[in-house]
Specification:
This protein is of the alpha+beta class and 604 residues long. It contains 19 helices and 16 strands. 47% of the residues lie in helices and 18% in strands.
C-alpha cells in the first residue's frame, strides 16, 4: 500500500524527491508525481564520464529522477559521492513509460553507496540523482523536436484534406452520394480532432472525496486479477471512503485461488489499512455473465459511487481521486477515464492498439465530453452514481435485442441507460492500463464482438440522441453512418470506378493515407512515442481487414457469444458445432446428405 494514506503515520513526510506537502501541488504535477517516484528494474549498459575518462557500468534500477548503477570495485573508487559526473545510456523500448525510449546524456550526482544486491564482492552499487528529471530533459530536447515535426505534418495534412474536400464540393452535383459521404467523413473526423484538442480534465478539489465502491468482475483471469485488486486498493484516497468488491463469475481456471491468496496476503501484511473491512469477495455458484457479477457487487456496495474495473486492468494511484471530480456537477451520472495499453510493446498488433486506444479516448471521447455526451463509459474504468445503477439494473440484466439476450456490450448498454436522462463525461486524468489481445485471431474476435455491441447500442442511442445538444446529435448520427456505409464506398472507389471508368482511385487512396497520418501524428504530438507510426498501419489494417467485419456484424448482431472467453454462451455454441459435425459424420458414413436442422443444447 505504497500510495494509500498511511494510518500509522510512520512514513516520512519528506520523500526522496523533496516533496513535503502533497496537498499544495498543482494538478498536473500531482498527477505526474507517482510516475516520478516509480522505479524500473533494468539491465542497461552505460558510460560514466569523470573529467577526461569514462567508466563502463550497468544501470540496474531506473526512475525519472535517478538510477542505481553496478560498477566493479576497482572502478568504483573513482566515483566520489557528491562530485558531479556525466552519464550516458539508452533507454530501450518498453523499459519505461512511452516517450522515454531514447538516448540520454545527462549530468548527475552520486549520493550514496547502496547495499549489494548479491554476494558478489567484486561490485558496488551507487545511487545517482539526475541534475534535472528525465521529464525535463526530454521536454527540452527530444520531445520539443517531436512536437515540432508533428505540428508541421499536422498542418500540411489538414491543409491537404481541406483542398480535397473543396474538390468534393465542386464535383458534388455529379455524384451527390459519394462526394456527400466524402464531405461528411472529413467534417466528422476533423471536428472530433478539433474539439478533442480543446478538451480539459476537471481539476482536482482535494476536499471532494465522495465514497467509492470499486467492483471487479472476474472470469478466468488468473494471470492478472491479483494486480488488479492491488491497484484498486492502493489508491491515494481516504481509506474510509474506498472499498473494493471482487466478484468471481464461477471461473473454471485458478482465478478463485489467486483471489483468495492475495486477499489473505493483504489482510495479513496490510491489516493497518483496514483491508478486512475494505476488501470483499463474492464467489458465484454458477456462471451467470458479467452483468450479473457487477450487479452482485452493486447490491452490497455501501458508497454513493460505484466504479467498474475490468479484471485485466490496473488503476494508476491517483485514478479514483481524478475519476470522481466531475460528479461535483449533480447532473453528471457517469464518468469514464482513459485506458492505455499495458502490453503495448509486445508486437505489431498491440502497438497498433496502443495508438488506437489513445486516440479513441483522448480525442473521440474527449470531443464527446465537451458536450457531456460520452456514448461509451468503457469497461476498464467507469464510475456511476449508485442510485442510477439501482434504478436501471433490472432492465440492464434482462436486456434483449431481437429476442436474444444481450450478454456483452455491458458498458455501452449501461451508458445508454444513464445518458438518456443524465450527463456522461470523460476524465483524461483518471488513467488505467489494460491488457489487449496480442494474437491475430483473438484480436479479430474481440473486434467483431465490439462491432456487434456498437451496432446494437447505437441503434438504441439513436432513439434519444436527437434530444441532446444539436451539434453532438449530428456528430453522433454522422459517426453511425460513416462506418456502416464505408464498405460500400470502399468497393465503389477501389473496384467499381477502376473497372468501369478506367480511372486509378488516387484521390481515395490519398484520402485514406492522410487520415491515417492524421491519427499517427496526433499520437506523436501527445505521447512523443516511437509507436506513432503504427497509427498508419492500424488505419490500413482497418480499411483492408477490420472494415469487412462491419457487414458481417450487421447480419449477425443478434449473436451473444464473446469469442475470446469460454463463457456459457461460447460453450453452448461449441457444443452446437460439435453436434452438427457429428451429425455430418454420421450421414457421410451412410452416404447421405444431412438434413439442415436446428440443434438445441440445454443448460445443465
Amino acid at each position: 500500500m505504497t500510495y494509500a494514506p498511511d494510518p500509522t503515520l510512520r512514513r516520512q513526510k519528506v520523500d526522496r524527491r523533496g516533496i513535503t506537502d502533497f496537498n499544495d501541488i498543482e494538478n498536473e504535477k500531482y498527477n505526474n508525481l507517482y510516475e516520478f517516484g516509480r522505479r524500473y528494474e533494468v539491465n542497461i549498459p552505460a558510460n560514466v564520464y569523470i573529467e577526461d575518462k569514462y567508466i563502463s557500468v550497468e544501470v540496474v534500477d531506473l526512475s525519472v529522477t535517478g538510477l542505481l548503477i553496478k560498477v566493479q570495485n576497482k572502478e568504483a573508487e573513482s566515483i566520489n559521492i557528491d562530485k558531479e559526473l556525466e552519464i550516458e545510456f539508452k533507454i530501450p523500448e518498453g523499459a519505461m513509460k512511452e516517450g522515454y525510449d531514447h538516448k540520454v546524456k545527462i549530468k548527475a550526482l552520486p549520493v550514496r553507496y547502496a547495499k549489494e544486491k548479491s554476494n558478489d564482492d567484486e561490485y558496488k552499487y551507487i545511487g545517482i540523482i539526475f541534475e534535472k528529471s528525465l521529464h525535463e530533459y526530454f521536454s527540452e530536447k527530444k520531445w520539443m523536436s517531436d512536437i515540432a515535426i508533428a505540428s508541421i505534418f499536422l498542418g500540411v495534412i489538414i491543409f491537404m484534406i481541406g483542398i480535397m474536400r473543396v474538390e468534393s464540393i465542386i464535383y458534388f452535383e455529379f455524384d451527390p452520394l459519394i462526394y456527400g459521404y466524402s464531405i461528411l467523413t472529413a467534417v466528422y473526423l476533423l471536428s472530433r480532432y478539433l474539439f478533442g484538442a480543446f478538451y480539459k480534465s476537471v481539476p482536482i478539489d482535494k476536499d471532494y472525496t465522495p465514497g467509492v465502491s470499486v467492483i471487479i468482475p472476474c472470469f478466468n483471469e488468473e494471470t492478472w486479477i491479483q494486480n488488479t485488486i492491488i491497484s484498486s486498493l492502493n489508491q491515494d484516497y481516504p481509506l474510509d471512503k474506498l472499498e473494493v468488491i471482487v466478484v468471481d463469475d464461477f471461473s473454471n481456471d485458478n482465478s478463485v485461488n489467486k483471489i483468495e491468496e492475495i486477499i489473505k496476503k493483504l489482510k495479513t501484511e496490510c491489516k493497518e489499512y483496514n483491508v478486512e473491512e475494505r476488501l470483499k469477495f463474492i464467489p458465484l455458484k454458477e456462471n451467470q455473465g458479467k452483468r450479473v457479477a457487477l450487479v452482485e457487487g452493486v447490491n452490497i456496495a455501501k458508497h454513493e459511487l460505484v466504479t467498474f474495473v475490468d479484471s485485466d486492468s490496473f488503476l494508476e494511484p491517483v485514478a479514483i481521486r481524478n475519476l470522481v471530480q466531475p460528479f461535483r456537477d449533480p447532473k453528471v451520472g457517469g464518468v469514464t477515464g482513459r485506458t492505455d495499453v499495458e502490453n503495448s510493446w509486445t508486437n505489431y498488433i498491440t502497438k497498433m492498439q496502443a495508438v488506437r486506444y489513445y486516440v479513441a479516448f483522448r480525442i473521440i471521447k474527449a470531443a464527446e465530453s465537451i458536450f457531456d455526451s460520452v456514448t461509451c463509459l468503457s469497461g476498464p474504468i467507469s464510475c456511476y452514481r449508485k442510485d442510477l445503477i439501482d434504478k436501471y439494473k433490472d432492465a440492464w440484466l434482462n436486456q434483449k435485442f431481437l429476442g436474444q439476450p444481450a450478454t456483452f456490450g455491458d458498458d455501452r448498454s449501461m451508458t445508454n441507460f444513464i445518458l438518456k436522462h443524465n450527463r456522461t463525461v470523460y476524465q483524461d486524468s483518471a488513467i488505467c492500463t489494460t491488457i489487449v489481445p496480442s494474437g491475430f485471431k483473438v484480436f479479430l474476435k474481440q473486434q467483431m464482438r465490439w462491432k456487434r455491441s456498437w451496432l446494437r447500442e447505437s441503434i438504441r442511442a439513436g432513439s434519444f440522441m436527437w434530444r441532446k445538444e444539436p451539434f453532438q446529435a449530428l456528430s453522433f448520427y454522422a459517426g453511425f453512418i460513416v462506418p456502416v456505409v464505408a464498405p460500400i464506398v470502399f468497393i465503389y472507389n477501389l473496384i467499381y470506378v477502376p473497372l468501369v471508368y478506367k480511372v486509378f482511385p488516387i484521390v481515395f487512396i490519398l484520402g485514406i493515407l492522410l487520415m491515417s497520418l492524421l491519427m499517427s501524428f496526433i499520437y506523436l504530438w501527445f505521447r512523443k512515442s516511437k509507436i506513432w507510426i503504427y497509427g498508419l498501419w492500424f488505419c490500413l489494417f482497418y480499411e483492408f481487414i477490420l472494415l469487412w467485419q462491419m457487414p458481417i456484424a450487421c447480419v449477425t448482431f443478434w449473436k451473444s457469444t464473446w469469442g475470446t472467453r469460454n463463457t456459457k454462451e461460447d460453450i453452448e455454441e461449441e457444443d452446437r458445432k460439435k453436434l452438427r459435425q457429428e451429425e455430418k459424420n454420421k450421414f457421410k458414413l451412410k452416404g447421405k446428405k444431412p438434413k439442415k436442422e436446428k440443434v438445441y443444447v440445454h443448460n445443465k
